[in-house]
Hydrolase (Paractinoplanes durhamensis), 269 residues
Amino acid sequence: MPVIDVGGVRLHYEDRGSGPGVLLLAGTGARGRTWHLYQVPALVAAGFRVVTFDTRGIAPSDTPPVVTMSDLIADAAGLIEQLGLGPCRIAGSSMGARVAAELCLRRPDLVDRAVLMATFGRPSAFLDAMSRAERALEEAGTKLPEEYRAAVRAALNLSPRTLSDDRKAQDWLDIFQIPLPGEVDGASSRLEADAGVNRFPAYTEIALPCFVVGFADDLIASARGGREVAAAIPGARYTEIPDAGHYGYLEQPELVNAALIEFLTEEKS
């Protein structure tokens, strides 16, 4: 994976295909390669040039002590500029979707259109409680057994349909026991990404085409929250993927890819 310097921060990225550019933005703690199992092959086959990357805070990209939302936005913008992608299509999930929305506001010159998956304009009471709980664990220096963490991650991020299938559930549990980025080398970053800020007033100022994708069984970023984001952004469209949790783009890739490619390929009105 090549490395690019963006404002003094080294980011590891991958650049595949040719055609109109698409930048994919992963969620909190996820590597760029999370898109490579399903979305990248489909987008490349559809005639797009697709760029993925590990955000700052996710090794092997640089891992400063603290990462802010402004950092994430600046890194994405710098990557678009240095790779000559802009104005490009962008798509993000979870925190990546929030970065995509902020790019629409702060650097509309770099964005052609945006897909926002598993997103929200302000955190729910449950998400706020989860964030506080995770911070409390971190500050206490508590390390939970990998088996327990895997079970919790599965319950929070997957749909009941996936969990009811023993084979699929076990596959996911095995994956979730793999250490998270930064845990092996101890170089993890603390994310201060303004997740608690209400961005609905700002979203009314987005003037670019946006497509919001909600996942029906998402506990982290509820489908209702996605509908609220779509209602706040002028002209935004919304679709909801059934039998999908927070990782819906991995649980229901065919439905997600079909909706994604349709929006990214259609002519602007």
